[in-house]
Write a structure and sequence with these properties.
It contains 13 helices and eight strands. By secondary structure, the chain is α/β, with parallel strands linked by helices. Strands 1, 2, 3, 4, 5, 6, 7 and 8 form an eight-stranded mixed β-sheet that branches.
């Protein structure tokens, strides 16, 4: 029976997920596969490479670096998170991603992006590291309006969370029968319709299908919340989420908020560790 780890996005809210994952890595909790959306992909790849602590470390180090996340980056590169710096220079040169460990770990690593022409989710699996994996992580994390479209293999791609925010059903279809799902919103959260629709419609007028999907994203997201709750009640899914709204938003330069958000994830994982271990080990 294959076990999976499902990670939603949320940009810097993903530091909560990083805190959970670091505790699980430190206690030797293993999965057969991980699927990540947006920040879930950016941070989740470190589970396969076994690099506990890396996510918090580089976010703290580059919190005020204009190349990493800034309006300056948006204006000069087209991405609020600098595409070249954040997704290539940082993991390949500055805080090196452990390619050898990633390749030797049999865990599957799946990434979710959204095709801007069809509005459909697109999935890609990586057993070993290659440059294209970084391209897919960039695409999965490319938030509309504040990121450029990423072209890979004929697909024009943006943030995976537009089309499939919590890809539990996808992972079940891949044969992962028991899954731990880490959310970055509290259990009672419900997504509401988009605000500032006039601006979004103006900026995405060339992509009417994507615009329609994004306008209805709250319906998809809330339906996925209902589904994972049903799967938890059925006993094949374990949901881990913050007790309250996290002290950080999508974007932040506050190191104290980053540490606090990460610590909340660690605290939850440490408190629930025995339950998580029992769930993952049950066959």
């Amino acid at each position: 029976m294959k076990t999976g780890l499902v990670l939603e996005g949320g940009a810097l809210r993903g530091l909560f997920s990083a805190g959970v994952m670091d505790v699980l890595m430190e206690h030797g909790v293993t999965f057969d596969g991980v699927v990540g959306v947006s920040a879930g992909a950016c941070f989740g790849c470190n589970y396969k490479s076994g690099q506990a602590g890396r996510v918090l470390r580089y976010n703290l180090r580059y919190a005020h670096d204009l190349r990493y996340c800034s309006l300056w980056s948006l204006l000069t590169t087209g991405g609020i998170f600098g595409p070249r710096f954040a997704y290539y220079t940082l993991p390949l040169q500055l805080d090196r991603f452990d390619v050898e460990a990633f390749d030797h770990n049999p865990m599957e690593f799946h990434v979710v992006a959204t095709d801007v022409d069809s509005g459909e989710p697109v999935y890609q699996c990586f057993d070993s590291f290659c440059k294209e994996m970084l391209d897919w992580i960039l695409a999965s994390s490319a938030m509309p309006i504040v990121s450029r479209i990423v072209t890979i293999g004929g697909h024009q791609l943006l943030d995976g969370g537009i089309a499939d925010s919590i890809p539990l059903q996808y992972f079940q279809q891949q044969g992962f029968e028991r899954n731990v799902v880490i959310l970055t919103q509290p259990a009672d959260y419900q997504k509401t319709p988009l605000r500032h629709l006039w601006l979004i419609r103006r900026m995405l007028r060339r992509y009417p299908v994507l615009l329609d999907v994004w306008e209805r994203r709250h319906e998809m997201y809330n339906a996925e919340l209902r589904y994972i709750a049903e799967q938890q009640a059925a006993g094949n899914t374990l949901i881990l989420c913050p007790e309250h709204t996290l002290p950080i938003g999508h974007l932040s330069h506050s190191r104290s908020r980053m540490r606090e958000t990460y610590a909340l994830g660690r605290e939850l994982a440490e408190r629930e560790l025995s339950r998580i271990q029992a769930f993952v080990e049950e066959k």
